[in-house]
Amino acid sequence: MEKNKKKILIVVDMQKDFTSGVLGNAECEAAVQEVVKVINSNQYDEIYLTRDTHHKDYLETQEGKNLPVEHCIEFSDGWEIRQEIMEAVKDEKVEIVNKPSFGSLLLAEELKNKYFNEMEKVEVTLVGVCTGICVISNAMLIKATLPETKINVIEKACACVTLASHKNAIEAMKMCQINII
């Protein structure tokens, strides 16, 4: 990462349901320690954690009809961000953004409101799960709202439902001028 830039880390959906819970898998579980390493590198000025957030009516929603597995129901154990992640971020420098869908318009707008006039002075890095759904959605929203901001995705600190879906998302992000590290 370039010096003299404000460095922002976005940790996407490192929640129990996506790592060790109902939608977890070995790759997503392994990503937990990689994300902790990224956080512990202490290279970031700001850290945002996104939290997939659904409600009791999840199965009645469009997403619930397409993925009929209740997950990340607000205030449930599976909705919680992994303890290792919370310990690494040290609450005083983190903002949690609950998102009702794959990407967070709220997060993209917050970054736009803070940094639109200094896009070239900001660098955003994303890590987390699932690469092919939520990581790519957030990366694309941020790219659309801050088109002159350098956006990175640390491939080793991301995982998806399958290795193929992870690789497809990585290739799609490359095509959209998102830096893959």
TrEMBL record:
One GO MF term attached to the UniProt entry: hydrolase activity
Q: Fetch the SUPFAM superfamilies from UniProt.
A: Isochorismatase-like hydrolases
Q: Where is the Isochorismatase-like domain?
A: 8-175
The UniProt entry, under Gene3D superfamilies, shows:
Isochorismatase-like
Keyword Hydrolase belongs to the record: yes
Sorted alphabetically, which InterPro entries does this protein's record hold? Isochorismatase-like_dom, Isochorismatase-like_sf
Is rRNA processing among the key words of this record? Answer: no
Q: Which UniProt keywords apply?
A: Hydrolase
Q: What is this protein called?
A: Cysteine hydrolase
* Organism expressing this protein natively: Eubacterium segne
- List the taxonomic lineage: Bacteria, Bacillati, Bacillota, Clostridia, Eubacteriales
